[in-house]
């Protein structure tokens, strides 16, 4: 494998492994040995499914606005905000009127995200 295969662009809609998470919520996944990145796009007012998984997750709001639902709290986030979600804490996102784009980082990689498909996996 060429080292060039290890370089990606967060704005390239054709890069990464595509997965439809929910209506109006899609992601492109980039998996390594110890970590996984997921570039999630949410249509205006789209919302993911409340779910949890054992992997630790960090998120960065790249564009738009959203409400981060984490545990029993709803926290407004804006471009540039980032957060940590410990393993097994229920969470989801609800996009604002202009939609949202989020970079999620998982450690270790989520096994169900190593293949194309749909849904969030563990709930």
TrEMBL record:
Outline the extent of the Cupin type-2 domain. 39-106
> Which stretches does the entry tag as region Disordered?
78-123
Q: Which SUPFAM superfamilies match?
A: RmlC-like cupins (SSF51182)
Q: Which InterPro entries match?
A: Bacilysin_H2HPP_isomerase, Cupin_2, RmlC-like_jellyroll, RmlC_Cupin_sf
Annotated protein name in UniProt: Cupin domain-containing protein
What organism, scientifically named, is this protein from? Bradyrhizobium cajani
């Amino acid at each position: 494998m060429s080292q060039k295969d290890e370089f990606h662009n967060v704005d390239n809609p054709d890069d990464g492994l595509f997965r439809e998470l929910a209506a109006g919520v899609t992601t492109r996944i980039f998996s390594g040995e110890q970590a996984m990145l997921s570039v999630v796009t949410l249509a205006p007012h789209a919302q993911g499914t409340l779910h949890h998984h054992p992997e630790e997750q960090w998120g960065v709001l790249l564009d738009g606005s959203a409400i981060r639902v984490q545990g029993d709290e709803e926290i407004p986030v804006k471009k540039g905000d980032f957060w940590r979600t410990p393993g097994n804490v229920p969470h989801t996102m609800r996009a604002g009127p202009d939609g949202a784009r989020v970079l999620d980082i998982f450690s270790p990689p989520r096994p169900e995200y190593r293949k194309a498909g749909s849904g969030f996996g563990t709930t």
